Amino acid sequence: MPGRVLAIAGGSVLALALLFGALSASFQDVNDGLKIIGHDAGPQVVATADLYFALSDMDTQVANVLLIGDEHGLGKGRQRALELYERRRSDAGRAVLQASALAGTDPAERRTVQAVLDGLGRYERLAARALLMDEQAGHPAGPPPQRVLEVYREATDLMRLELLPMAYNLTLESGTIVRRAHEERTAALRTGQVLVAAAGILALGGLVWLQVFLARRFRRVLNPALLVATAIAGMYALTGFTVLGGETDVLRQAKQEGFDSVLALARARAVGNSMHGDQSRYLLDPERADTYEQTYLDKSQSVLYAPSGNLGAYYRAVDEGVDAYPAATTRFLGLIGREAARSGPSGRQEAIIDVLRRYREFQRSDVLMRRASPREAVEQLVGPLTTRFEAYDAALVKLAGIHRATFDRAVRDGEERVDELWFLLPVAMVSTAVLIVAGVWPRLSEYR
Predict the structure, then answer these.
(1) How far apart are the C-alpha atoms of 372 and 287, rounded to whole Å?
(2) How many domains in the chain?
(3) What pTM does this model have?
(4) Residue 298 belongs to a domain
(5) Is residue 441 part of a domain?
(6) Which residue has the higher pLDDT, 1 or 269?
(7) Which neighbouring-strand residues pair with 333?
(8) pLDDT digits (tens, 9 = 90+) for 116-156
(9) Which ranges in 69-163 belong to alpha helices (H)?
């Protein structure tokens, strides 16, 4: 009889150990996933998207300085462009350092980061040379002298054809870290749920069996210690199973509704800035004006897609699409188009509407700039058009902030829920073991 009691009690303890072990391993998976997505790789991936923005804005500001020349009435615009260029140089340097940290020991990514650093140094030398030559030329607003333009062409080709594609690839490569972490941790949590459920059933079955066995053999109606141990095990099994299911949703929300949207909007902001640079380059280099007009259309389509074969048709499609929103969301594609097509809280929808309207105003300013005379086009660019672009960019930042708040809240809530159970897990393990011994020991002592 003592051997049978010990065997049932030992089996129950073993099942409880499996239960608490499965809970502990699953909680560790949750913490690792939230740490990678919320604190390590996630923010760093967004930083690589900021690298694209900083690089493209550097080239935009150089183009603006060359376009303004030494025009007295536009002197403030020239000084502001120079200040922005220096600021973006610092931003790009910080973003490259973060990208290097994210690359870790991956040889391919480290080579890409090194190539970006080398290319950035070459670009800065060409840009400095073009700015110095432009200052010495002292030309009015409009295209600079041919020798200045040739140096700038070399610089902007380096930026657009080498540096920006490498920066974009860094973002894509780094994003796989977050995607892989999300997939692996989600699979681990689902496996953990199965293990917790199976171990919980075994533990509860063993404790109930032990309770019934003692009641029949020793003619006891109830064993309070075993009853409390059973309640603790059942509560932890059920709570753990429920929390793990909730943590799967937390990881999904943090990844899809937070991180993915923040990254998409960061990319939309970077591409939009590059579009704004194409407007400057369109006026700066008449020989390549058609090329810059086409690249402007291509980038516009990537931000907010609308079926069209030329800019005129695109302007009309954007007007019609924004007027129809939110009743007709299926016509939207592109980086901000997909965000607009998602249903969400009213605050988010209001922010999306603001982004779409600001984007439409920016495109309407582009029409006026392209129809104006060369001198008036420069005034439009550094005046109303830039103002509307900045308003659109600010609306994008606001929308990204809403998604970032969703992202941070999901990560914080997930960590808090796991921390609460994790803190009590050792207490539950020790207390159940003590209660099982307290319930069995008096019965075994009868056989001394």
Answers:
(1) 18
(2) 1
(3) 0.78
(4) yes
(5) yes
(6) 269
(7) 305
(8) 889 999 999 999 999 999 988 888 888 889 999 999 999 99
(9) 75-103, 107-137, 146-158
**DSSP conformation class of 389:** H
Helix axes 75-103, 41-68, angle to 10 degrees: 150
Residue type, 233: A
Between CA 127 and CA 133 the distance in angstroms is 10
Give the rounded distance of the alpha carbon of 220 from its chain centre. Answer: 60
| CA pair distance 253, 379, nearest whole angstrom | 45
Residues 6+ apart with CB under 8 A from 198: none
| 303: CB partners within 8 A, 6+ apart | 268, 271, 272, 275, 334, 335, 336, 337, 359
What tokens were used for 351?
Answer: 């922010």
Bridge partner residues of 305 (DSSP):
333
CA angle 367/264/418 to nearest 5° reads: 155
Distance from the Cα of residue 103 to its chain's centroid: 17
Nearest to 168, CA basis, from 88, 303, 52: 52
| Nearest partner of 436 among 17, 25, 23, judged by Cα | 17
Nearest to 152 by CA among 117, 115, 119, 123: 123
The backbone torsions φ and ψ at residue 333, rounded to the nearest 5 degrees and listed phi first, read: -140, -175
Domain assignment present for 70? no
Q: Is residue 22 domain-resident?
A: yes
In our burial notation (b when 16+ CB lie closer than 10 A, e otherwise), range 1-40 reads eeeebeebbebbbebbebbbebbbebbebbbebbebbbeb
SS3 305: strand
108 contact partners, CB below 8 Å, separation of at least 6: 173
* Pairwise CA distance, residues 140 & 136, whole Å: 12
Contact present, 258 and 421 (Cβ < 8 Å): no
What kind and span of H or E run contains 442? helix 386-445
Which among 422, 428, 346, 355 has a CA at the least distance from the CA of 392? 355
Report the alpha-carbon distance of residue 336 to residue 211 in Å, rounded: 61
Of the listed ranges 21-35, 192-206, 319-333, 379-393, the one predicted with least confidence: 319-333
CA dihedral sign of residues 281, 285, 289, 294? negative
**Structural domain for 301, as ranges:** 2-43+177-445
